[in-house]
Amino acid sequence: MRVLDTAQMRDADRRTIDEIGIPSIVLMENAGRAVAGVIEARFEARERRRVAVLCGRGSNGGDGLVVARVLAEGGASATVVLLARGEDVRGDARANLDIARRLGLRVVEAPGTAAWDACRPAVAGADLVVDALVGTGLRAPLEGLPAAVVADVNAAGRPVVAVDLPSGLSADTGACIGAAVEARVTVTLGAPKVPLVVSPAADRAGEMVVADIGIPARVVDELGGPRVELLTRGDLRVCLPARARDAHKGDCGRVVVVAGSPGKTGAARLAGTGALRSGAGLVTVATPASCVGPVAVVPEYMTAALPETEDGTVRGTAAEVVLGLGADVVAVGPGLGVGPEPRALVRALVERVPGPLVLDADAITVLAGDAGVLALRRGRVTVATPHPGEMARLAGMAVGEVQANRIGVALRFAEEHGVHVVLKGARSIIAAPSGAVRVNASGNPGMATGGTGDVLTGVVAAWLAQADDAEAATSLAVHLHGRAGDLAAQRVGETALVAGDVAKHLGAAVLELAGG
Question: Which class in CATH covers the domain with range 2-225?
């Protein structure tokens, strides 16, 4: 499902109106009726007896006026609070304002602070608030009266349904540019918008519902600009590779995981288990010789002993052993350790692994300041799976800069270095060298615990070994990993969730996606 920014949404509206011939006032009517329909479906009659609809003077406010009219027709007591003077409202919004008044709808103008102060008790006493103050055009933080209104709405603690976007969010970024309405439900019009699918802004949106308002699907598909997609189960189901009835283990991919060091053998075990539980036919965990014993406790994968330093970390010369294992996919980094020898190993694997290579954790850290070496892999599939701190080190920026522009940072690095980037975190970003960006919605806060990223490393490697399309395999892996975490949380709760629980539920996640 495509995700749009401000310019793309504006272009979609224009093309629908000018080229397809659907009048803008029809789109506004469809939008308002769609929002009202969601309210009637999500809230019982007693929860929407008294509705306060907050409207700006633009198109978003016009949508809100339609919402108020439709809800009033359904029996609700709807009050419109217009944060403008009526004579300042233009176009389709003005037409709907005039309709509302002719129908006897209560419309209160509150263009200033004193007028808003008089309206505040009615808003605070409403059963439900509809936020139709500001739409997709916001680029700077709210100030003055709109900012005060947002603060008062949030303080009132009433359930809020936002029209298109919670007021205060910018449609161009997943960052919170300033104060924003905290919605329970956001009904986004035509297509999802960037802040509704990317954290931390998405945390303000509550449940997102995408409303069809009459913009043709082909118009959205043909839009220029960034190609950002929200992963859906329908998209991913077709990515699941079919397994032949006469398949043998060699057909399902040979994965080698290079991981572990003293005190971090668990990372190696988790990565290996993630690969096994994701369908890889043969998995070998290559680890420093002194770590083989603790790692070998999982009977389903093989182990390989790597030459090690005096402190037990892997030597750079271990590359020869790894390359001799005949892997279809190599994953390197979980618990590997840092320093000159691990760095030499990672660099050698970057240069010499002929097939897909997955870089995680310490493998990413040792490449900080040396990311240019990734150019040596152009033409070969490389997947990097950093968390925000690792992404910051790899890209040479602050963590705050990464989090303020998760899509932009991941995409820029993917395109510049020719690698697939999985920027982990809430709503993980998957960026491809082709310029495609996908946002994953599965997963939960309980997965913010040590080892879940190690499991993901194995999951990514396994699906790369089974699928021909690296973009599809990476997206599938990230979704299934998150969904396994969701299924695990249903069993043990988010607080008690550990990485091993995620690995145990990978099979259930695959079954669910496949429809089994």
Answer: alpha beta
